[in-house]
Amino acid sequence: MRIAPERLAWSVLLLSFATFCVICAASTLFAHFFLFQSSLSLETTLQVGRGTVGITESATAPQAETQSRQLSRDTAIRTDSQDQWSQAVLSFRDPETGQESIVTAVLKNDTSVFLRRANRPRFSWSSTIYEISLQGLDGEIDIRVANDLPRPIELSITTVTGDEVLINRGGNYLIDGSSEGLSVVTRTGEAIIISADRALAYAIPGGQQATFNSASQELTRTPYMQNLLVNNQLQFSREAREQTVDPTGAYLPPFGWSCTNGPVSNLPVGNYFEDTAPDGRRSFRLVRGSGADTNGYTRCDQSFGDGLDVSTYDSLYLRSMFYVDSQSLNGCGQEGSECPMMFRIRYKFSPDGDRSQLIETEWVHGLYTVPLSPAQETAGWKRQCGTCLQPHIRILGQTWYVYESGNLFDVIPDERRPVVITQVEFFAEGHQYDVFVDDVSLLAWQRDGATSHE
Fold first, then answer.
1. Do both 337 and 414 map to the same domain?
2. Domain holding 66: CATH number?
């Protein structure tokens, strides 16, 4: 049967028009997706704070990392399980918006996690969000999400049991996942715990700690440990921001803290001020340079007058997050007393339980980045100071490190257990040093704190 030429022509014309419409619609949809919804990977950097980190990227053999490297999606990460001070830092940065990391995740020792993806919009005008997915968390991870981001963020952390922690606002969080369940501490911000079957969801606001049992599906809330220090994040008052120096010529310290540089006879003296760390984070800087080759220090402290009674607490921890950019001395100097980052707690104890006969002493611990040379080792340069109970810790420089003392009631012998704290101090000491400090906290916990179950 022969088709009429007119009908064939109309069929071809209509088919061509339909094809044209489909192509136009598809092109429009693709252009809209490409311009407004497509994404690229965030710049993701792994920096080792201490120890060796195992890296397994997709379709490659496991590798060991002791310094730093760029990571791509679908990468497994595991920190050293043999060293309690081992650590690694994952930094996620959007190169289109500035230098500061939008998320910093510190993996503690013996922690494994799988970086599933870390995406950002392809174009600045896009309406899509930052999206970061960490899966299979087994261990502890300390997270900082920057405030005032240019677009919303969705940070998802799932544990080995499939339970999820969802974070979509700036703040500081501590997440511990295992086969038993998970624990979430929201220092600031808000986190959401979602059960593996997606049936339950719980908001964990700032200042709370929650533990979720995967087997029983029960959530237990407790207040987070009490911070005994004022202004632990070292923020500056409006006066300090508007008036850079006080009448004596020294920079004003963060509010609640007293700071000093010395010795004044050893020039040049150090200094302290608010500044931008190499990763773009606004922090408190302790610095001494100009070729100094004599002892110097920059110290900041909070004192408590008659003393701060800590005898009723069950746990006491000192925590700090800092970045050692450089130091000129090896180790902590010949006597082990000149680390680029040191902590000191002056306190009183009662050896026989008589509080009318308190004795004053101190606990000191330091961290450094430059190892001792073989000649210095042979010459007997010390790895801890004369009053220190523990050797100082060598970490890697030019990355953030989270220091946690452990429960000081366990670290300090029972016969010298702190009863009253008179001063907490952090300081940089040596010849030349350059350190950025983001947080110094003294955290205390009582066993009989209020607890609720859901």
1. yes
2. 2.60.120.1440
